[in-house]
From TrEMBL:
Family note: Belongs to the trans-sulfuration enzymes family.
Protein name listed in UniProt: Cys/Met metabolism, pyridoxal phosphate-dependent enzyme
GO cellular component: cytoplasm
Disordered: annotated segments: 1-32
Biased segments, Polar residues type: 1-11
Compositionally biased spans, kind Basic and acidic residues: 17-26
UniProt xrefs under Pfam families: Cys_Met_Meta_PP (PF01053)
Length: 448
């Protein structure tokens, strides 16, 4: 993105238990820049607050306490009345705010270029909390036809049954369809993925945001597939959600999510009386937050290599005659759109798909890739250092019925690959070619 703007970074002061504004510990805990120039997610992360450990360690301490003491009896009343809070380092209970989780939340806000963020126990808890906050009974959502299966099930089955919230699914490429589906005065939000799961369609975030905002509708974007690559809030989105479990974690060992947006949104979602993040309790464990905060600083390096490998494999797969879909290829329908929106230097994403047309061929290819040549693993999720593969129609998109899959563009043999970066590129490519040769020898694939 060429546009540069200044984003405030909240600096939390040290403990003021006695109310002394000149506490000598305050200076040490506030050694960060109060503002950063946002032109790149990595630069924003580098300019955000660095939390030191309790004894001056370069890594922050883990605040494992579930509850927090007060030094004066009247302080607790003031905290519950909203007069004292985390902005002055006063904490009530870790389901509300926890210092370690709050630090990770600041990193997520810096990453996405938003005023604030809040980290949750899973990506689905982040998504469901946002939807429940922005919609009321009788509310309406306009959403992309192509969504992660769990999100699709939430919108299709759970919310209508439990909350009387309905959804109209649309083709995001048909802007007139999007516009006509938004009912002024009734539609609460427009929901879509920046890069769709699993078809890798790229959303026109600026134009979709303009359409929604013209009708007074909030825009919520899932950026799980494209952290660092795209910054939806800078392109017009109001709220950005993540499954941190994926690329941001990178280790396939943590379940976590995040909501990024305006400070007023996060504060409202944490309201003691009716905030869904507070009332429903999708609380992130402080030890998980610590682990994740140690991984975010090298997210940019990891994403660049994920993207580099994905582009290299997609280019070579296409030359072999495979039906490969990747936004970095010039024949991808939204290739130029992604180039116009993407943060420079991060590539086109770490996901690609290979359409084998039938589930039998897809399964056979994945079996050879894992069990014969060790190219990758048959597993759901994404963002791991090993390549992960799944047949989307029968796995992560199985919540969609056959008609919904067809409308979403998900073929029975669509193999989704989260491209890893372990080993050398040539080593891993050789493993792919060997598996493809075995598939051709089996008679299930014609020679390219």
């Amino acid at each position: 993105m060429a546009e540069t703007e200044t984003t405030s970074v909240t600096v939390l002061s040290g403990k003021k238990r006695s109310g002394d504004e000149h506490d000598p510990m305050v200076g040490k805990k506030s050694m960060v820049s109060a503002a950063s120039t946002w032109d790149d997610p990595a630069a924003a992360l580098a300019s955000s607050r660095h939390e030191f450990g309790e004894h001056g360690g370069v890594n922050m301490s883990i605040e494992a306490s579930a509850t927090f003491t007060v030094m004066e009896p009247d302080t607790m009343r003031k905290m519950f009345a909203g007069e004292l809070g985390p902005d002055r380092d006063f904490y009530i209970y870790s389901r509300h705010f926890n210092p370690t989780v709050l630090n990770l939340s600041r990193q997520m806000a810096a990453l996405e270029g938003t005023e604030a963020a809040y980290c949750t126990a899973s990506g689905m808890s982040a998504i469901s909390s946002v939807l429940l906050h922005l919609c009321t009974s009788g509310g309406h959502v306009v959403a992309s036809r192509t969504l992660y299966g769990g999100t699709h099930a939430l919108l299709t089955h759970f919310l209508p049954r439990a909350c009387n919230i309905t959804t109209t699914f649309v083709d995001l490429n048909d802007l007139e369809m999007v516009k006509s589906s938004i009912m002024e005065g009734r539609t609460n939000l427009l929901y879509f993925e920046a890069v769709s799961n699993p078809t890798l369609a790229v959303a026109n975030i600026p134009e979709l945001s303009r359409i929604a905002h013209d009708k007074g509708v909030t825009v919520v974007v899932d950026n799980t597939f494209s952290p660092m690559v795209l910054s939806p809030a800078k392109l017009g989105a109001d709220v950005v959600v993540h499954s941190i479990s994926k690329f941001i974690s990178g280790g396939a060992d943590i379940i976590a999510g995040a909501v990024c947006g305006k400070a007023s949104l996060i504060n409202a979602m944490m309201d003691l009386h009716q905030g869904p993040l507070m009332i429903l309790g999708p609380t992130m464990n402080a030890k998980v937050a610590f682990e994740l905060s140690e991984r975010i600083p090298h997210l940019g390096l990891r994403m660049k290599e994920h993207c580099n490998r994905a582009l290299a494999y997609a280019t070579r797969m296409k030359k072999l005659g495979l039906k490969v879909h990747y936004p970095g290829l010039e024949d991808h329908p939204q290739h130029e759109l992604l180039k116009s929106m993407a943060n420079r230097g991060y590539g086109f994403g770490g996901m690609l798909t290979v359409d084998m047309e039938t589930e039998e061929r897809a399964n056979k290819l994945m079996n050879y890739l894992q069990n014969c040549t060790q190219f990758g693993f048959m597993a759901v999720s994404l963002g791991y250092y090993e390549t992960l593969m799944s047949c989307s129609g029968s796995s992560t998109s199985s919540e969609l019925n056959d008609e919904e899959k067809e409308l979403a563009g998900i073929s029975p043999g669509l193999v989704r690959m989260s491209v890893g970066y372990i080993g050398t590129l040539e080593q891993k490519w050789s493993q792919f070619e060997k598996a493809l040769t075995r598939l051709q020898d089996s008679g299930l694939l014609k020679n390219a």
